[in-house]
Automatic annotation (TrEMBL), chain A:
Family: Belongs to the binding-protein-dependent transport system permease family.
InterPro entries: MetI-like, MetI-like_sf
Tree of life domain: Bacteria
GO biological process, one term: transmembrane transport
Main localisation: membrane
The keyword Cell membrane is annotated on this UniProt entry: yes
Presence of keyword rRNA processing: no
Spans traversing the lipid bilayer: 27-46, 90-111, 123-144, 183-202, 223-244, 283-304
Native species: Methylopila capsulata
Membrane topology recorded in Swiss-Prot or TrEMBL: Multi-pass membrane protein
Protein name listed in UniProt: ABC transporter permease
SUPFAM superfamilies xref list: MalF N-terminal region-like (SSF160964), MetI-like (SSF161098)
UniProt keyword list: Cell membrane, Membrane, Sugar transport, Transmembrane, Transmembrane helix, Transport
Protein location: Cell membrane
From TrEMBL, chain B:
Keyword Signal appears in the UniProt entry: yes
Pfam families xref list: SBP_bac_8
Alphabetical UniProt keywords: Periplasm, Signal, Sugar transport, Transport
Entry's localization field: Periplasm
Segment forming the signal sequence: 1-28
Keyword Acyltransferase in record: no
Family label: Belongs to the bacterial solute-binding protein 1 family.
One of the record's GO cellular component terms: periplasmic space
Protein name: ABC transporter substrate-binding protein
UniProt superkingdom: Bacteria
Length: 315, 435
């Protein structure tokens, strides 16, 4: 920016300055990076920084807060609802991610086989991912409805149960229900990405293993899985991040009820900040999510990408 | 601003005289103080999406009349009712957006210094129409000033199937909480249970929980904002709620705002509480003609406290200080509260919006249909949330966190004893009312 100001004030120096910039690789590199850097600063660093700052203030809607240090966090540590939401979030993320990974990998392996109408199946697998979350959440709302659940109805018609299942009323049933909805929605992302990974594995590796007498389980365990770990690491990092920060599904299905049994940190943060008006506390809850998210990212980088060749070295 | 204050005053005086001649003679004292909009003014109004169509149509028609009379263009946008709070908060914080908004509950109390002081016209309008009802007026006032005009109270009443109540042996609806429990038991006995929302339904959940608490004499805080929730009265309310819950259709702890309507319209429950929209839903659908004929409405019964006290959704008309046309805003407000417009709006809202001015209490809408009668007293029996403390950040935060709803739900589902549930709720209340 100073360079630009300079050549405005010294038109004579313009030519040489321009040509110097054009010929300096470092400067040119910086100039090219500038738009991206500005975008990141304005749309990422600033909101994040503001969020972190708000977490240290008692800002409410309509009133600027004052710096109160760690008070929001101290109060949250004594808040049973917040602690419950932390538990809910970890439980939700853990169970949903494991299920999504297992089912997604399974689906990817199936889709990788030579099926009839392969392209068609691969396309429809993506449907749950394509449908807007709010729409699918409303569909699940009906499925889990206390009075009109199609699942309850079918089971009653089959004579398996004699009364409606209280999907969203019982705390553990509610947790299981929202996890089921999240898994349904999240599988396609995992499956399709892993499928892409599977297709990069050279068939010659499998042929060699087969010639060596490897069973299909051994081929999966010692050829497919190691070759797939880099992409698993990336997919699961994303999957965990999406699940951990899930909001819409809970908001439509339960609003965090019954008695906060399905409140996630994201939904609680919103509830406290916007309808409740305590922007500072809401921000603090959101900031409290960051360590967990960082942990998930670090785990996938150091835990799952531990082989040297995955990081560009020789194995 | 292109005009100096002197210009505005001068043109204002001229136009004021003109409007006196052609204007409304009905209320001379308000007509004399008619505020004239700035020249070239235009306004943006953001309201909640209507629940009954007549409300929106009448509001738009009245606004058109205002535009014709003054030349001030008014654009009306709408948002889903739950999105109003964040939108208003952003507008207040950022300092730009609509000039006028319909907001809910304690919104005006959260940023009173960002709102246009409308005490002058509030006083005129109030005295011209028999005065404001105390409940809705308390939501619009802050620091002795009107920071908005009380717009309406959305009544909530018990809706029940008369034939089933009769079948259960109740030809007359019980007047007190004890009789109400007997009715619920009897309804369950004939396999047509009642159902009231114990889930995180912003409207239905909070309305029901507050009625339970207040009807038994419990309150969250006293006049000095000291938390007094953990009281024998509250525990009695929770115990009463547990008894009621046993008679309900299963799953009401998962109900959000829509579930009770669905269950009632499907004939799954014999009784629930709702706005008048439920009654209209039965009338609109020819397939529900039988239900429509059978549906009756009444107020929640009176509890040990001895009088009707309930929480309803309260909406206030506010204007932001940042508006470029404060006079146009006030002129618009005055116009919309004039007899001709306001009476029409209350009528067309078909009982959904209860008047905030006592002068409109005899609106024919309340007597045209007996179903509307219980909704007519909403403004009168309304008790503000956070009673008996002041409205503000604490009361708003407390209610938005569903503390009372959770307290009852925890106890009625048997997760905790009534005493424990009340203690926990009181502890949560302390978080909001700490000093």
């Amino acid at each position: 920016m100073t360079a630009a100001a300079d050549h405005l004030t010294h038109p004579a120096a313009k030519r040489s300055l321009m040509s110097r910039i054009a010929h300096s690789r470092h400067l040119l590199g910086l100039v090219f990076m500038l738009p991206a850097a500005i975008l990141l600063l304005v749309f990422l660093t600033y909101p994040l920084g503001l969020g972190v700052y708000l977490g240290f203030t008692d800002t409410t809607i309509g009133r600027d807060g004052i710096w109160i240090g760690l008070e929001n966090y101290e109060l949250l540590m004594e808040d049973s609802v917040f602690l419950l939401s932390v538990f809910n979030t970890i439980f939700y993320t853990l169970v949903a991610s494991i299920l999504k990974f297992a089912l997604g990998l399974w689906l990817a392996l199936i889709l990788n086989e030579h099926l009839p109408f392969k392209a068609f199946f691969r396309a429809i697998v993506l449907l749950p991912w394509v449908v807007p979350t709010v729409l699918s959440a409303i569909a699940f709302w009906w499925i889990f409805d206390a009075q009109f659940s199609v699942l309850s109805w079918a089971l009653i018609q089959l004579g398996i149960i004699d009364h409606n299942i209280n999907f969203l009323g019982d705390p553990w049933a509610a947790r299981a229900s929202v996890i089921a909805a999240n898994v349904w929605r999240g599988i396609p992302f995992v499956a399709i990405t892993l499928l892409a990974g599977l297709q990069t594995i050279s068939p010659s590796l499998h042929e060699a293993a087969t010639l060596d007498g490897a069973t299909s389980w051994q081929r999966f365990r010692h050829v497919t899985l190691p070759m797939l770990t880099p992409i698993i690491a990336v997919v699961m990092t994303f999957s965990v991040l999406f699940t951990f920060t899930d909001f819409q599904l809970i908001y439509v299905l339960t609003r965090g009820g019954p008695v906060n049994a399905t409140h996630l940190m994201a939904t609680l943060s919103f509830q406290r900040a916007i309808p409740g008006g305590n922007l500072g506390e809401g921000a603090a809850i959101a900031v409290a999510m960051i360590p967990f998210l960082l942990g998930a990212i670090l785990f996938s980088y150091f835990g799952l990408q531990r082989r040297k060749w995955q990081q560009g070295g020789a194995d | 601003m292109k005009f100096t204050r002197r210009d505005v005053l001068a043109t204002g005086a001229g136009l004021g005289a003109a409007s006196l001649i052609g204007g409304m003679p009905a209320f001379a004292q308000s007509a004399t103080a008619k505020i004239e909009p700035e020249k070239g003014a235009s306004l943006r109004v953001l309201r909640w999406s209507p629940f009954v169509k007549g409300d929106e149509d009448a509001w738009i028609a009245n606004t058109k009349k205002f535009t014709e009379a003054t030349g001030v263009e008014v654009r009306i946008d709408k948002e889903s009712w739950e999105d109003i709070r964040p939108k208003a908060a952003v507008a207040a914080n950022v300092g730009s957006g609509p000039d006028i908004m319909f907001v809910w509950f304690d919104d005006p109390q959260q940023y009173p210094d960002k709102l246009l002081d409308v005490s002058d016209i509030a006083g005129q309008i109030g005295s011209a129409h028999g005065g404001w009802y105390e409940g809705p007026a308390s939501y619009a006032q802050s620091g002795g000033k009107f920071v908005g005009l009380p717009l309406a109270v959305i009544g909530n009443a018990v809706c029940y199937r008369d034939s089933w109540a009769k079948q259960a042996g109740f030809s007359e609806f019980p007047k007190d909480t004890a009789g109400f429990l007997e009715l619920c038991k009897a309804l369950k006995g004939i396999n047509h249970p009642a159902g009231f929302t114990h889930g995180h339904g912003v409207g239905d959940g909070n309305n029901y929980a507050h009625w339970l608490l207040w009807s038994h004499g419990g309150q969250v805080v006293d006049e000095n904002s000291k938390v007094v929730l953990d009281s024998p009265e509250t525990i009695a309310a929770v115990k009463y709620a547990s008894e009621l819950y046993k008679t309900f259709i299963p799953g009401t702890e998962s109900w959000l705002d829509v579930n009770n309507n669905r269950a009632f319209l499907a004939g799954e429950v014999s009784m629930t509480a709702n706005g008048i929209s439920l009654a209209y839903a039965t009338k609109k659908d020819p397939k529900l003609a039988e239900m429509a004929a059978d549906l009756k409405t009444t107020n929640f019964p009176v509890g040990p406290v001895g009088k009707k006290v309930e929480l309803f959704q309260v909406t206030t008309l506010i204007a932001f200080k940042y508006t470029k046309f404060p006079n146009a805003v006030k002129a618009y407000m005055q116009f919309m509260y004039d007899e001709a417009q306001m009476a029409e709006w209350v009528t067309q809202s078909s009982g959904y919006c209860c008047q905030t001015l006592k002068g409109y209490a005899n609106n024919p809408v309340w007597t045209a249909d007996p179903l509307a009668a219980p909704y007519a007293v909403a403004s009168e029996t309304l008790r503000p949330n956070g009673y008996a403390g002041p409205l503000g950040t604490a009361s708003a935060g407390f209610m938005a966190d569903y503390v009372l709803v959770d307290m009852f739900a925890e106890a009625v589902t048997g997760q905790r004893s009534p005493e424990e549930a009340v203690k926990r709720a009181a502890k949560r209340a302390e978080r909001y009312y700490r000093t």
